[in-house]
Each structure stands twice: as structure tokens, then as C-alpha cells.
Amino acid sequence: MMEQINTAILGASGYTGAELLRLLAGHPGFRVSALTADRKAGQTMDAVFPHLAGLDLPTLVTIDQVDFDRIDAVFCCLPHGTTQSVIAGLPDRVKVCDLSADFRLADIESYAEWYGHPHQAPELQKTAVYGLTELAREAVRAARLVANPGCYPTCSQLPLIPLLKAGLIEADDIVIDALSGVSGAGRAAKEANLYTEVAEGVHPYGLGGHRHLPEIEQGLSAAAGRAVRVSFTPHLMPMNRGMLSTIHVRPAAGVGPAELRAALAEAYRDEAFVRVLGEGVVPATRHVRGSNLCLIGVFPDRAPGRATLVSAIDNLVKGASGQALQNMNLMFGQPEGLGLAQAPLFP
Amino acid sequence: MMEQINTAILGASGYTGAELLRLLAGHPGFRVSALTADRKAGQTMDAVFPHLAGLDLPTLVTIDQVDFDRIDAVFCCLPHGTTQSVIAGLPDRVKVCDLSADFRLADIESYAEWYGHPHQAPELQKTAVYGLTELAREAVRAARLVANPGCYPTCSQLPLIPLLKAGLIEADDIVIDALSGVSGAGRAAKEANLYTEVAEGVHPYGLGGHRHLPEIEQGLSAAAGRAVRVSFTPHLMPMNRGMLSTIHVRPAAGVGPAELRAALAEAYRDEAFVRVLGEGVVPATRHVRGSNLCLIGVFPDRAPGRATLVSAIDNLVKGASGQALQNMNLMFGQPEGLGLAQAPLFP
Amino acid sequence: MMEQINTAILGASGYTGAELLRLLAGHPGFRVSALTADRKAGQTMDAVFPHLAGLDLPTLVTIDQVDFDRIDAVFCCLPHGTTQSVIAGLPDRVKVCDLSADFRLADIESYAEWYGHPHQAPELQKTAVYGLTELAREAVRAARLVANPGCYPTCSQLPLIPLLKAGLIEADDIVIDALSGVSGAGRAAKEANLYTEVAEGVHPYGLGGHRHLPEIEQGLSAAAGRAVRVSFTPHLMPMNRGMLSTIHVRPAAGVGPAELRAALAEAYRDEAFVRVLGEGVVPATRHVRGSNLCLIGVFPDRAPGRATLVSAIDNLVKGASGQALQNMNLMFGQPEGLGLAQAPLFP
Amino acid sequence: MMEQINTAILGASGYTGAELLRLLAGHPGFRVSALTADRKAGQTMDAVFPHLAGLDLPTLVTIDQVDFDRIDAVFCCLPHGTTQSVIAGLPDRVKVCDLSADFRLADIESYAEWYGHPHQAPELQKTAVYGLTELAREAVRAARLVANPGCYPTCSQLPLIPLLKAGLIEADDIVIDALSGVSGAGRAAKEANLYTEVAEGVHPYGLGGHRHLPEIEQGLSAAAGRAVRVSFTPHLMPMNRGMLSTIHVRPAAGVGPAELRAALAEAYRDEAFVRVLGEGVVPATRHVRGSNLCLIGVFPDRAPGRATLVSAIDNLVKGASGQALQNMNLMFGQPEGLGLAQAPLFP
């Protein structure tokens, strides 16, 4: 019997919090000791998320009510912008995986530009490890604070970074069209996310400046060894979960789809959660639903000098809570895939 | 390390077969040794169900190609009507859970009436145990052949049988309106099940004579101690998974919703998968998605002398493959819930 | 060229308001002269409902800003409870069709019981005509104020009233299970109506006391000639539009489904919008989407002494704005179907 | 009263045929005189498409059974590849709008390459007018045979052609990601189009070689004055109707999004069905559902030297049957928008 790690989820009344609880339900290592939700404090999780009834979970409390001396691990699922001061107030010995965007941008100037206010914990920011697990495993293992990547950045960077690092594609001509399920927008009651406003239709949004863009460019720039600007257009899909990126690249001279595919297959050869598909096999979001998988396909393009990458994840799992658990497993020396072995749910 | 049971799934290219594989992927006791699918024999499961890629599954073969001397357990997911002769041809030592309707009706006259041809294995029929697990646990444990209940019958009988047994509701006035996701219709390519024909609309079907009706009546009649006829109307819903039964009953004299709820809560007090909800809590299919749960609620009705029962299951899990695994666990002396502990997937 | 009637829509920023505008776009008789929406006053309709861009509609204003001396017809799409005082303040010469529930219950005691406060315009209530058009045509024609029926009451009463009037079914044993698309819940931003909360799942609600229940019972009681109590259970469906009622009745002695069907066919023989389907033809909501149609089917039930009625409408058209226009056409002496001839949209 | 034109729809049992009937139901000029469907010949349209019940339509017959001497206009909705010989066999006096791909490619070598067999009516091909109405109005007016554009080509070419003609964008760097509803796949019963296979998921398809690609390139090449190759990736969406193209372009030196928008606004200034949206207004498929509209938006891109075009249509209307009717109106000297004035259906 593994000794269990006392765990708190801050902001547990949203979808990423609920998804963590789903994954932790089958996890032997983490004990859910505290759940917070400021507006819903006092409610049971059964009331807030009936699908989790029966897991015998703690009642929701405010953050102030948590005794962090008895907590070892914190998953922070608070809204963007509200997280910095909360994490700054936690005891140093508590390890934190933050699912918000607050610590993802290493450059606090860039943070200030995109989020409209100065970063409130710049020293803490310097210690944060960007937790794209497969590409930062050792740093994550040693981290006290992990900034868990956004869903779009996870889905885009996993196929692109190995190719940029290897110089197999041009850094200056990357076009990303990304498709996301609605759960990425969270559980807040907004007209735009009503069933009636979303079902049976699609549209792009954040045109020319979605907040995940600097996060993507940060990772791609590091891989390319110089500043990279990409074209990135997210779209809202009439589905609960799932994210798909269709990425248009220019292979370097003499490089074709087969070489790109081989390089990605090699990069992720030993990975449990990133799967590079064979020639002609097309990633689809329904093939990863509920799982921590990322599927990647590489395709030729009839347009001269181009190739197409396609990647698919579940935005709530590999794009949020699953990757967070993957990171926390590493931070506590547990097997990386613990609690993440579930096969996808289809149909 | 548990010694593994060699297991075959016959008809593994349909949704119930795939769902069994999803559940078995996390199961320590059963080894998937053979998968059959007549028309798709020779294909890999990766090709047939890409979401199961990575499970290292056997290639699909025909039933003839299976060496049943090396098989201990068979899940039979063949179409209704084709199953009797196949199971009759299996070695006696092989334990079988049949997900088709072929062995569900104890009365072979009734079978002949509803299915339009004489039963082809009447002796075998006599040995079959109807596997509504919670209500037939000991018989299932001892069975060699379990007839796994249909989705509608599971969802309707679980709330009704304890009440009929206890004489708490009238047997002669039961009205069931049931709502099912499309996966219940299987994976066969039919115009009526195209996305375009199903999305954004609802309709009843099988009016006045769905094949699950005699199965429901068989169970209710046994519980009531006399022949029961019910009104049963299934409806097709624009969703992949999920089944909900809204059941209108007449409580016996002096009995109200509270007494019905208490009786059900008592009947299922120790059950892991059947959950009787508190007053005012409404079952919803999204709260059981992907899980083996059955939620039951009891509600007052303003119409004099009536009460309403509502039950919800995932038609592919408790309504098919999950209950089948629950039964097979019992048949092999394993913990009943092994492989079935996953929390529901929401949203 | 018809002389056009100056028309105001109060509460035009909701779905029923938008639907009226869609229908009026092709209507030669009504000129849209004023649109109100208190919280969105000052916005253009293009901004509030981009699908209506190009119709050259007035900008949204507050009710106070409307010069009702220049208005002849008012469609009132305000929330329940807020409507009484507004309508009471309109000039007598203005004809009003009210889509809220405020004037639907003739008995103001019943109103007070169900809505939790005394009726604020009891004298006006006495003048209101309940506008279930096919069954109240002459009264509607003469009315100054029409209370437009709710969606559930429309869908339930159209099949039941002729049968009750003719004594062909028992009044004391009517069970209605009704399925509604999400647009019936309106455009207010509520967590429960988010895409993520609704998609891929179904559930009942309002168990034992939905506010449409007294409205249904009012109509059925009048038809039966005595107080009728029904069992009525609404369900939320993962679809934008559409409503289906599955209604379980007990035919009178010697009456079978064929007689019920014949009686309904006779009752609606000359109706353009109510269609009684032939034996075995099943109503489906997708067959009425976007149209003012009500489809009715009658089916046998294997349970002794029972029959099943099924009716389908588009909740936003025949269940709201379409029937409102149908009524307003009558109130102004125009052809009843003007603006309502569009064929359903499928798929 | 307009003298009515006798009209036949060949292949009326598919979705484009049904959509034509929906649009023609409100059209004063065309009388539906014959409907064909080889496999469903003998059936009534009520049975094949219950939503069209009540339109008093002819029973389905085989093509052989049609007396084309009494037909003036033919809408041909037959499958690709089967159409050439049928149209070649029609009397010269019959005007034809063909919704298949058979006459869209002016270069019969290209046709042979993409469709795998030689063109069977090369002389007829020379007479065919490619009916992208707004850009070919005069030719359509004079045509006897119009090749109605595909949905993807319509949605992509309308925003691109004016910009290429004006030299405002580079012809050699166009990336199109297109999203389509399922109705574009037709009504044939295929596993891949089942509700369960499509709902709650997205994926690209036809990677590197969808058959609409040469059609798009044909139009863009003509506009650019030289051979153009584009990157084009279609995606299947979980929705019935709607198509959205997100198109990445490189404006010419000194040209920005504002200039592109102005040029498109000017190009379509007098058009009823093509609407260029203001700055920041985003096209969405739900805003055109059921209508013949094409919405176009132009957006800046943070990536240097790029801009983004977004266009949205209903694939069954402007992408198929609506444009076909628009063309046929022109061919018979009727007002171009007759029968096409319906406002979009939302939600």
C-alpha cells in the first residue's frame, strides 16, 4: 500500500477540477484532502458534480479554510489572473501544479502585454517549470511549481517542437488552425456557451490574438533557437471534449512527409501518451476522448513545398487535468502514467 | 499476480465488443486471447477501432479460426438470432456471457413469437441464467451460460422489480417511456442511424411492440407473481450513449414516494453500481456516462394515485458490456466490480 | 400592396423574438416598427442576432422609448411575471399577443398558486383569449389580447382536446411524457443550459410540478367538462428545437386506436398546420423543424386498455412565435397562414 | 400569375433533392413535375422525406419513366460519375443545372485524373457554364447546361477570386482549412457517417487530395491568370449543415486587411447573398443555416505578412441547392433571388 499524498484542488467546481477528481478516483497515490470553490463553498461535490457522487469527496470550502500544513500537493484550477497571489501564499514545501495561464509565460513583459496587468509574482515565475511533460520531464521531476500547458499549446507544440529542434521545417511559415470542444471555455454561465448558441454550428474566435498564442510562440521559439511568429486560429466546435490542430508547415529542402513522420516517431518512440500514426492514418478527437493520449499524423500536401501535421487530444485530459496529473506523478516520484491508463471512450 | 483467464469476444467489431475491450484494458483477470468478426476477419483492431490502438489486441479472425480448447471465457456479441447455434457449438467447459437476446426469454414460445422463428437451442436455453446481476447474483455465480439483459430491460427492471416483489406498486398499471442513445442501434450502416437522420431531433419507435418488451414483462411478471403487461415506448435520442426510463406507477394504498424510495434504497443498500438518489435529486444520463452505474430517483406526481420512477444507465455499460463483465467476474469467482470502477465521464 | 400594420416586439432579444422576426421577414402585412430589450437597448439587431443581419430592423430600445400611438400590434415576449403591468399600460387600441404565461390561466387563484404572487392585472385577464388557434379561432379573431399557449400545452392539448370532447378517452388516466429542445429555456445565461451541461445527455425536470401543468389541465378540464388532473413530465433534450409528447391514454369502452385516429383526422381535417398521420407513421421533431406544423400519430399499446398518442411541434414555431403570428393574422383579418408557409428544414 | 416551368429533379431521394423541394415549395415559377430515384422509384416523397409531406409532390419514378418532352428544367442531383450520360440523353431544349461534379472541370484530362475514368460527354462539357453565380452571372443567364459548384469550392472561391483578380494577395501561398457539416456526405448508409461515428468529434479527411481541390484551383488559376496550387484540408464536423472556410493568405506589398475587406465589399456591393462583414465581425455557420447567404470576414494575423479570410455558407443551400435555384432562376429569366429569401434558422 502506497503512502498517500495529501492533495488539495483549488477551484474544484470547474471542469478541470472535476476531471482531476475523475482521474484521481482510480489513483493509489494521491488522497483528495481538500477541495475549494469560493462561490460554491459549503456545497457537497455531489451537488456540484453529480457524476462524482459516490467518490466520498470532501465538501467544498474556501481557500482560507484549507490547512495547508496538512497538504503536500496542490492542483490549482483557478481562473487566469487570480492564481499568482494564491500560489505565492502557499508554504514552500507544498508542490504545485497550476492549470491556469498565470505562470506559463517566462517573460513577464509578455504576460503583462497579453493579460493587461503586471505579473504579481515575478520571483515565483522564475522558478516555474513549463510542464509539457514529454519535452520537459527532468525539469518537471525537480520542480516545486509546474505551469501546466494550455490545451492549444499542448496540441500544437507536441508535433512542432521536435521538428523545429531538428531543423526539419521552416520556422517562419507555420499556420495552425485549431478546433476545440466547448469544455475548454469552462463552466461559467455565458450566453456564448449556451447549448443553443453552440450546437449545430462552428466559428473561429480570437482571430489575430488568442492568449494561447504567446505560449505557443514561446515554445516554438525556444525550439527553433530564435523568435518565431505563427499564424494561429482557434475555432469552437459543437462537442464537449476534444481538440484537433491542423498545422501547415514547410519542410526543409529535401525533407518530405516521410522524414517528418520518422523524426516524430523517433522523438516519441518510448512515450506512452504520444502516438505517431502510420502513413494515411488520420487523428480524430473521438479516438482520444477521456484519455491522456496525443495522436499525431503527418500528411503530404499537393501544394508545392508544404506538408500537414494533424494532432488530436482531449482538451480536458492531455490538454489540462491529465497532463497535470502526469506532471504531479513525476514531481512526487511516482510512475508517470499512474491514474492515466484509461482507454478512450468511444462512441 | 492473478492467473489470467483466456477470453474470446465473438463479434468484436461492434460497439459492445469495443466497449468490453475498453473495460478489459484495465482488468487484471481476463486476457483477451481471441477476437472474431466474420466480415472484418483479417483486420487489426487498430483499423476497426482506432481508439483501441495501443492495447496490443489480437487480429480479428472468424469464429472457425478460434481454438476454443484454449479459451475459458466467451463474451458473445453476435447479432440476435445468430447466436444460438454458435454457443451450442462451444465446449461445455467454456463459460459464456451472451449479450444478444437469444437466451433471455425463458419461454421459447415467446421467443418464437417475437423473433419469428423457433428457438434453435431449447435445451441450452433451460440452462441459461438471466443475468440482471444485482437480482440474480447467486445464480450468475453458478452459471455456465448467462443471458446478459438488454439495455431497456436493465434500466426498467432495476427500479421496478423490488417494488413489485414488495407489493408496493400495482402490477397492472405501469407505463414506461424510455430514451436511448444511438449506440444501442449498433454499428451497422443504416440510413436511419446516419448523423443527419438523428441529430437535432427525437422520435419514438417500436410503438406497441419493441422486442425488449417481453423481456421486461418476463422479469416483472416473476416479481409480481403473475402475468404483467406493461406499456413500453422507446425513443431515439441524439446522443451516443445513455438511457433513461421514466416510469409511471400506482403505489399501493397508503404508499407514497417516500416509501418507494426507502424500499429501493434498502434493496440496493449494499450495491456498488445501483444508487438510489435522495429526495429531489434527478437522474441524468450524463452522470453515468462510461460507468456501470444505475441511478434511480423516485418522485411524487400531482396526478392522484401516481408516482414516478426515473432510472438512468449508460446503455453500453450497465446496459450491455459492463454488466456482462460484472457477470463474468462472478462466474469466475472474481470481485464483482473488477474493471468497472471508472468514474463517469462528464462533460 | 397590402397596407402594413405597425408592429412592436417587446423583449426582442430572446429566441421567441428572433423567431418572430424570422417569420415576419417574409410577411407582407406586418411592418416591424419597434423592437425593445431593456438590457440590450441601444444595440442593433445585427449585433444581438447576426443571423438577422440584412433585414434592416430597428435598433433595440427600451419599452419607455416606444411611441405606442404609432403601433397597432404588439408581440410581447417578455419574461413570465413581468408582462402584466406592461400590457396593462398599453393603449386599448393596440392588439396584443402575449407569448408569456401571464395571461394563460383564467383562474387567477391558480396563477397565484403557481407563480407565487397575486395576478397584477385581473381585469385584463378576464378579456384574454387563450390562443390555441385551431380550437379557438373565432375567439382569437375577435380578441384584443391573446394569451399565446406554452409549447408543452400546445403539443399536449392539440391531440387530447378533441378526444376528450368526444368522450373517446378517459379523463382520469392521462400520462404525458414530453421532450423539449433547449431553446425553450430561453437565451439567459444559466449554467444548466450550457452546451457542456446539455449535450450528449437527457434528463427529466420539473418533476411533479412544471408550470405548464395547470395550463394543460385547464384546457383538458374544459374539454372533459370537469376537473382533470394529468401526469406530466417534461424532459430536456440535446437539440436546439423541437418538442415531442408521448401521451398514454385509456380509450373508452369499445374504442380503439383506429377510432381515435379517425376522430382526430376529422377534427383537423381542414387545418393547414395540424396533420394527423396515417397508421404506423411516427411523428418526429425533425420533420417539423422551422415550420408551424403539429404532427399527430395514434398507436396501439400492447398493455390492455391503452393507446398512445404522439405529437411533435417546433417549440419555437407552433409552440411559440409561429402560433403567435397565426393568432395575430386572425386578429387583423389576414389569412391565418400568412408568413407561415415555410417547409420544414431537414436535415 | 406567372406561367410555371415544368421541372424535374433527377435523384430526388438525396439531401440536395429534398433541399431543392423545400426551396421550390415557396417558388411561384417552377412546377415540380417529375421526381426520380432509381432505387426508391415507386415510393411517395412522404415516405422518403416525411418533412415534405403536404407539398403534394409527384411519386418517385425512374429516369426512364420521365417524359422529358413535357419538362423544361432539370435539376440533376445524381451521384458523381453517373450524370454525364444521363444529361447527354436529354432533349436539347431542356435546360439543366447539374449539382454533381461531372461538368465542373473544364479540362477533361483533369477530370480523368481525379475521377479515374475518361469523361463520357466531352462535347457537352465544352458547353457547360460553371455556375458560381455572382462571378458568372451573364454566362449563366445564357447557358443551357450549368455545372453547379461544389460546396467547398463555393465557400473558398467567393472570398478569394476577387482578391486574386485584383492582385491583392499572392497566388502562391494560400492555405484553406474547411469545416463541413455531415449532410455534405449525402444520405447513403455508410458506417463512417453514422451518428455514433460523427457526433462529439472532429477530424480532417481527404488529406492531400480531396476531389474539390482541382475545382478550387481551376477557379483561382483563372482569377490569377496562371496556374495556382493551394493547400486545402477539409474537416468533418458534428453538425447537419454548414460550411466554414478559414483561409490564410499573404496580402501583396502594402496591402492590409482593411484593403482586402474593402475590395471584397466593393466586389459584392450589390449582391443579395454575399455579405462582407464589418471589422471584427466573425462569420459563423449558424448565422446562415437554411439560407442562401455567404458571409465573409477579413482579419489581421499576428504572423507577419499574413491575413485571414473566413467564409461561411449552408452547404446544402449556397453550397448546393440554393445556388442551383439561383442559377436556374437566371437561366429562365426570373428574378435571381426568387424562392431564396428565407431568413436563416437560428437557433
UniProtKB/TrEMBL annotation, chains A, B, C, D:
**Gene Ontology terms, MF aspect:** N-acetyl-gamma-glutamyl-phosphate reductase activity
Reaction(s) catalysed (UniProt annotation): N-acetyl-L-glutamate 5-semialdehyde + phosphate + NADP(+) = N-acetyl-L-glutamyl 5-phosphate + NADPH + H(+)
Q: Does the keyword NADP apply?
A: yes
- Keyword Cytoplasm belongs to the record: yes
- Active-site annotation: 151
Ranges where the Semialdehyde dehydrogenase NAD-binding domain occurs: 6-143
EC class, as a word, reads: oxidoreductase
For this protein, the Enzyme Commission number is 1.2.1.38
Location(s), subcellular: Cytoplasm
Which pathway, metabolic or otherwise, does it act in?
Amino-acid biosynthesis; L-arginine biosynthesis; N(2)-acetyl-L-ornithine from L-glutamate: step 3/4
Sorted alphabetically, the keyword list is: Amino-acid biosynthesis, Arginine biosynthesis, Cytoplasm, NADP, Oxidoreductase
Pfam families, sorted: Semialdhyde_dh, Semialdhyde_dhC_1
What family is reported? Answer: Belongs to the NAGSA dehydrogenase family. Type 1 subfamily.
| Function of the molecule | Catalyzes the NADPH-dependent reduction of N-acetyl-5-glutamyl phosphate to yield N-acetyl-L-glutamate 5-semialdehyde.
This chain belongs to the protein called: N-acetyl-gamma-glutamyl-phosphate reductase
> Species name for this entry?
Phaeospirillum tilakii
Give the lineage: Bacteria, Pseudomonadati, Pseudomonadota, Alphaproteobacteria, Rhodospirillales
